[in-house]
């Protein structure tokens, strides 16, 4: 009995675990099963909604994806597909997108060169008609006023490659400006007032240039010369046009050309070389003049000279 008191006491610990039939591990497995079934039914719905041709395109893509991506073709990028796009650009809705395709942008229109040329030609014709109508209006306005009609021979209007050119030239006994000054004669102001009101009828901008004859100042080119005089006269004409009602924003360029561009090249001292030239510029001339270093050409001098000679003979 004494030995029994020396026996070791053995304690058994039993770890109880919850789970089994009533645990939560089955929920994870069920969620995986539901996810797989959703993916399966979604795939079946997509296959059922896609046309036969699109299915062939999809199959072709997975067979040779690089070939379809580079060369294009009928496939999931077709507009009839429920999966829009295809290729590198998923926003495209028509056909596969190849690497060589260009993004037209939100406002870009594809037109042929012939269509563009036709539109430009039509715009040029419409602009030419506007300038011709303006020419007729100015001529009619001068004819309607007896006080201005007597100066008709000094007012030359013609259509050039730059637009409508209006030239007001001097005569021997009827100058536009005071001698060697930029002071406008009263009848010159009346002419410019009439022209200024008419110029608002067209959206075209204008260029003014002053011209003198070759008679030099006593001081030559070192002091105040024909260059300053021609520029001052061009600016005086600009002010008169604006005073007559022309929008001041229409003026694009005012230059003084001295005697560099003579009207009568045979006689540099002819009073007709003293003139103001107003060019109602067409779109091409306006774009050229707006560029840095652009120029406005002066053409058809021979034709204008013939008009003066013919008018003077009448």
UniProtKB/TrEMBL annotation:
InterPro entries: Bact_OuterMem_StrucFunc (IPR050330), MotB-like_N_dom (IPR025713), OmpA-like (IPR006665), OmpA-like_sf (IPR036737). CDD domains: OmpA_C-like. It is a single-pass membrane protein. Keywords: Cell membrane, Cell projection, Cilium, Flagellum, Membrane, Transmembrane, Transmembrane helix. Its main location: membrane. Residues 287-314 are annotated as: Disordered. It is found in: Cell membrane. Residues 164-284 form the OmpA-like domain. One of its GO terms (cellular component) is plasma membrane. NCBIfam families: PRK09041.1. Belongs to the MotB family. This is Flagellar motor protein MotB. The lineage of its organism: Bacteria, Pseudomonadati, Pseudomonadota, Betaproteobacteria, Burkholderiales.
């Amino acid at each position: 009995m004494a030995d029994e008191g020396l026996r070791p006491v053995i304690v058994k610990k039993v770890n109880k675990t919850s789970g089994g039939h009533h645990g939560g591990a089955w929920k994870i497995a069920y969620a995986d099963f539901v996810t797989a079934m959703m993916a399966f039914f979604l795939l079946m719905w997509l296959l059922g909604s896609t046309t036969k041709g699109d299915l062939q395109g999809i199959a072709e893509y997975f067979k040779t994806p690089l070939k379809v991506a580079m060369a294009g073709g009928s496939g999931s990028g077709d507009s009839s597909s429920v999966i829009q796009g295809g290729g590198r650009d998923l926003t495209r809705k028509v056909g596969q997108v190849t690497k060589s395709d260009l993004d037209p942008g939100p406002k870009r229109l594809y037109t042929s060169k012939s269509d563009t040329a036709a539109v430009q030609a039509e715009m040029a014709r419409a602009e030419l008609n506007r300038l011709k109508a303006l020419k007729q209006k100015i001529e009619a306005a001068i004819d309607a006023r007896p006080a201005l009609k007597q100066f008709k021979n000094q007012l030359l209007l013609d259509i050039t490659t730059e637009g409508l050119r209006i030239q007001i030239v001097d005569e021997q006994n009827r100058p536009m400006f005071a001698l060697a000054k930029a002071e406008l004669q009263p009848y010159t102001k009346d002419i410019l007032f009439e022209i200024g009101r008419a110029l608002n009828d067209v959206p075209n901008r204008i260029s003014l240039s002053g011209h003198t004859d070759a008679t030099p100042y006593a001081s030559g080119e070192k002091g105040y010369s024909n260059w300053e005089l021609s520029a001052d006269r061009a600016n005086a004409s600009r002010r008169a046009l604006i005073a007559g009602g022309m929008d001041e924003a229409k003026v694009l360029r005012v230059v003084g050309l001295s005697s560099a561009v003579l009207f009568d090249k045979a006689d540099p001292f002819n009073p007709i070389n003293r003139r103001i030239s107003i060019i109602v510029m067409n779109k091409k001339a306006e774009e050229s003049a707006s560029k840095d270093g652009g120029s406005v050409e002066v053409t058809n001098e021979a034709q204008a000279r013939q008009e003066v000679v013919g008018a003077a003979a009448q």
